[in-house]
Design goal:
The chain is of the alpha/beta class and 892 residues long. Among the domains are: 99 residues, 2-Layer Sandwich (D-amino Acid Aminotransferase, Chain A, domain 1), CATH 3.30.470; 134 residues, Phosphohistidine domain (Glucose Oxidase, domain 1); 343 residues, TIM Barrel, CATH 3.20.20.60. The strands form seven sheets. Strands 14-24-23-16-17-18-19-15 form an eight-stranded mixed beta sheet. It has an eight-stranded parallel beta barrel with strand order 26-27-28-29-30-31-32-33, surrounded by five helices. Strands 1-2-7-5-6 form a five-stranded antiparallel beta sheet, sandwiched between helices. Strand 21 and strand 22 form a beta hairpin. Helix 4 runs antiparallel to helix 5, helix 14 crosses helix 20 and helix 16 packs antiparallel against helix 35. The radius of gyration is 34 Å and the shape is elongated. The mean pLDDT is 92. Bound molecules: adenosine-5'-diphosphate (ADP) and magnesium ion (MG) (2 copies). The site of one magnesium ion (MG) has 2 residues, from loops.
Length: 892
């Protein structure tokens, strides 16, 4: 027969294994604490499996549960030597219990705990007589009626609170603690009236009815709307169910030698190895967190640091405090992690009511993991596994001073982490100019395009009204390590008038604003920031992560500065150097335009000749920074129209600079217009139609490699990558161009370097035909941004309009441009990896899409055996940690 009730405390530990799946988190840990000999009030847990059963039976309890629960109550009665519902005025008094919900993971939205259950008009008198404290007995009863009416009977709790306030006011009291036994008695009478008024029946006097009402309410709360919403948001399956814990009451409200408190075994904000917590003398249950009275500090140190008057627990109750401190240490050794603890002191005796792994900030997580490994409490590998890689993001960027005031104007998407303050500027040229003059600038745009690169680079932060987490602004900002808030739809930006309106206020050019790219908040004025700390614990954890990691981590970087940052963050090469960004500066863009506007190959070559030395210079500086490491350079990818002006007013000046008539420029721009440029004339299609472009780029790469090789003695290792390949023939043609150019350069210079030619796999056809393509390509890099677009048939620049709804409705678990669609796109990656390796066993495989910095996607990359992941420079440490965790998981 399936068992549903598991006893704990008093030497009877039925759930000895502390199984959270069965007992829920709270029940498992109550059992765990009792089994290591800690003082836990006895009780029992109704297993999570009963929750499902309860719903199967049409929200009724199966017959066998009644007997099991009766046994559970008998267990508590034996251990406490009290009887449930006992109204005799002598002896040990009536048994009171708490009824507490507890799912596998702690879950707001579940039923609140009911305390003091078992009190009625008779037992309250018995409690008063046996405890010798009438005031305590009636205080407990009024608390019970109020809680039970609220969480079990679901009556309007406002009415009860109001009655309490009026009762205090009538007596001229401010604090509950000032109320006398008679005051509480009168309030109980009033509460009885309220229950009849609101519920139509008197308050349940039968203690068993009380108990079953509370148990039913716990199970009922599992399907409450707010619990369902929470589960949906946190991916908690609906069939887990909740457990119910029924436990003997202990009383923190029995006078000045009694207290209740909450504590962490280490500081959850900083991670410092010091006890941290609060307690209240003569209080019960949630009084500490409810803010009815100001709680007191746990330790003397904390009280002194805060210059607080009321004595700390360490000072006021030194003996019990000493016991509590010993319990903290025991619990940390037992659970091998920082614990969040609830305790009560009843007339000088300590009781433990809860322990669980404590929530902590990213900073604390890092410090606690490293400290615990150094204390030999956990292994270095466990330390690596414990820190959430995404949380590192918070640590790698400046953050807003948590104590500073924030005047929040609006909220957009947290597109790129970090915080920045500066003057609002609505135009990239102005941004650049004002930044050159030494001002901190926040670039505010409706959305950004490649033409804004210089403005984005000059800005300290980027704010857009449109676009999602993978909009141009978001992707580029993350790559540059600039904080970015995108899609702040409430902003009405009038760039021409240099003003933006939001929430009835105006931001003009030059006004100070602040962005928090980690929360999406946009604030008026300047908010002070705190700088990140990259050495210390962070550095230590990274060294440990690198020891267990199999995959290499590279960076997506295209400027010497980004490469430098990436190296400092531990990048082991460049996985994606996009060359188009190199063409946007004032001088070069003119030549690029001349090339685009040229009527024939000779004209194009003349323009490309001017670009060659510039491009070579770019590669020289990148190779210099990346000496000894591989650099993957992607040849030109975007459609050419991106290089032409879009605004009517720019045409004249551009035409003049390029040395053509304005009509020619307009005609050519018209010719280049495409209905769907992302699927148009771009990628290797440019190289196939205008091989001289790729030839120039290849030449620049080889000349730069030879130059840096002879200068430094360490020849760089260029990997030349052809974008948007769908067929083997495309790659063959492009490889011929590159190889031919290499031979020419090597002959001219009488020297050579090693290089590879490979391709991005970013079209479904390429993934399917990877076996054939690998006959030519020496490496594959999965361009999962485009591969996601083309596999899902979703344009990432337009997806923000419906993707949120899609994620809400569970069509995709997460934004597929942020976290790889493993089932669909992932399968293509897997197919391509398998087929590519079959043809060329040592083919190098990597990923260079945005997913290369996403932990879940990195876990997938490990499972298909990719050689490396490539992420934007600021995400390199995240990728190192995530790759290490993936390797640990793969080892099992
Ligand atoms: P939550 O999950 O909201 O923390 P709990 O079930 O832990 O709810 O109950 C909240 C508080 O109620 C506990 O911190 C404790 O102070 C009090 N409490 C619960 N059970 C008991 C008990 N058996 N005796 C005394 N106090 C209790
Ligand atoms: Mg609790
Ligand atoms: Mg692409």
């Amino acid at each position: 027969m399936t068992r549903y009730v598991y006893r704990f405390g008093g030497g009877a530990n039925d759930g000895a294994a502390g199984d959270k799946t069965l007992l829920g988190g709270k029940g498992a840990n109550l059992d765990g604490m009792a089994s290591i000999g800690l003082p836990v009030p006895p009780g029992f847990t109704i297993a999570t499996t009963m929750c499902a059963r309860y719903y199967e039976e049409g929200e009724k309890f199966p017959e066998e549960l009644f007997a099991e629960v009766a046994n559970g109550i008998a267990h508590i009665e034996t251990v406490t030597d009290k009887k449930f519902g006992d109204a005799t005025p002598t002896g040990n008094g009536p048994l009171l219990v708490s009824v507490r919900s507890g799912a596998r993971v702690s879950m707001p939205g579940m039923m609140d705990t009911v305390l003091n259950l078992g009190l009625n008009d008779q037992t309250v008198e018995a409690l008063a007589a046996t405890s010798g404290d009438e005031r305590f007995a009636w205080d407990s009863y009024r608390r019970f009626i109020q809680m039970y009416s609220d969480v079990v009977l679901c009556l309007d709790h406002g009415a009860f609170e109001e009655a309490l306030e009026i009762a205090k006011e009538d007596r001229g009291f401010h604090l509950d603690t000032e109320m006398t036994a008679n005051d509480w008695k009168a309030l109980v009478a009033k509460y009885h009236e309220l229950v009849v008024e609101e519920w139509g029946k008197p308050f349940p006097q039968d203690v068993h009815d009380q108990l079953w009402g509370a148990v039913g309410a716990v199970f009922g709360s599992w399907q409450a709307e707010r619990a369902k919403v929470y589960r949906r948001l946190n991916n908690i399956p609906g069939d887990w169910g909740t457990a119910v814990n029924v436990q003997a009451m202990v009383f923190g409200n029995m006078g000045d030698t009694s207290a209740t408190g909450v504590a962490f075994t280490r500081d959850p904000a900083t991670g410092e190895n010091a006890y941290y917590g609060e307690f209240l003398i003569n209080a019960q249950g949630e009084d500490v967190v409810a803010g009815i009275r100001t709680p007191q500090y746990l330790t003397k140190d904390a009280r002194e640091t805060a210059h607080a008057k009321p004595l700390s627990m360490e000072e006021a109750m030194p003996v019990v405090y000493g016991e509590l401190a010993a319990v903290f240490d025991l619990l940390e050794r037992h659970y091998r992690d920082m614990q969040d603890i609830e305790f009560t002191v009843e007339r000088g005796k300590l009781w433990m009511l809860q322990t669980r792994t404590g929530k902590r900030t990213a900073k604390a997580a890092l410090k606690i993991a490293v400290d615990m490994a150094n204390e030999d409490l956990i292994t270095q590998e466990e330390a690596v596994a414990r820190v959430d890689p995404s949380a590192l993001d918070q640590l790698l960027h400046p953050t807003l001073d948590p104590d500073a005031h924030r005047d929040v104007l609006t909220k957009g998407l947290p597109a790129s982490p970090g915080a920045a303050s500066g003057i609002a500027v609505f135009d990239s040229d102005v941004a650049e100019k004002r930044a050159e003059m030494g001002e901190s600038v926040i670039l505010v745009r409706v959305e950004t395009s490649p033409e804004d690169i210089h403005g984005m680079h000059a800005a300290k932060g980027i704010l857009t009204a449109r676009g999602g987490m993978t909009s141009h602004a978001a992707v580029v900002a993350r790559g540059m390590g600039r904080p970015c808030v995108s899609g702040a739809g409430a902003l009405a930006i009038d760039a021409a008038a240099k003003v933006c309106r939001v929430a009835g206020r105006e931001i003009r050019e030059g006004d100070l604003i602040t962005l928090d790219g980690s929360t999406g908040e946009v604030m008026a004025g300047s908010v002070p920031t705190v700088q990140p700390e990259l050495a210390g614990d962070f550095g230590t954890l990274m060294v440990w992560a690198d020891k267990v990691r199999r995959m290499r981590v590279r960076a997506n970087a295209e400027t010497p500065h980004d490469c430098q940052v990436a190296r400092e963050f531990g990048a082991e090469g460049v996985g994606l150097c996009r060359t188009e960004h190199m063409f946007f500066d004032d001088k070069r863009i003119t030549w690029v335009r001349q090339m685009i506007l040229a009527e024939n190959e000779a004209g194009r070559r003349a323009a490309l000749d001017k670009l060659l030395p510039e491009q070579r210079g770019d590669f020289v500086s990148i190779f210099e920074v990346m000496t000894g490491l591989p650099v993957t350079i992607r040849l030109l990818d975007p459609p050419l129209h991106e290089f032409l002006p879009h605004a009517e007013e720019d045409f004249a000046s551009v035409a003049e600079a390029a040395g053509v008539g304005i009509e020619t420029l307009k005609r050519r721009a018209n010719e280049l217009h495409e209905f769907n440029p992302m699927l148009g004339h771009r990628g290797c299609r440019l190289g196939v139609t205008y091989p001289e472009i790729y030839e120039m780029q290849a030449r620049a790469i080889f000349e730069a490699a030879l130059e840096v090789g002879s200068k430094t003695g360490a020849a760089p290792f260029p990997e030349i990558m052809i974008p948007l390949v769908a067929t083997k023939r495309e790659l063959e043609l492009m490889k011929e161009v590159v190889d031919r150019t290499a031979q020419a350069v090597f002959k001219e210079q009488n020297a050579s370097v090693e290089y590879h030619v490979g391709t991005m796999i970013e079209l479904p056809r390429a993934a399917l035909k990877a076996g054939e393509i690998a006959e030519v390509g020496e490496f594959f890099s999965f361009g999962t941004n485009d591969l996601t677009q083309t596999t899902l048939g979703v344009s990432r620049d337009d997806a923000s309009r419906f993707l949120t709804t899609y994620v809400d409705k569970g069509i995709y678990a997460r934004d597929p441009f942020v976290s790889l669609d493993i089932e669909g796109v992932g399968e293509l990656v897997q197919i391509a990896a398998e087929r590519g390796r079959k043809t060329r066993p040592n083919i190098k495989l990597g990923i260079c899409g945005e997913h290369g910095g996403d932990p879940a996607s990195i876990t997938f990359c490990e499972s298909v055996g990719l050689d490396y992941v490539s992420a934007s420079p600021y995400r390199v440490p995240i990728a190192r940690l995530a790759a290490a965790q993936a390797a640990l998981k793969a080892r099992g």
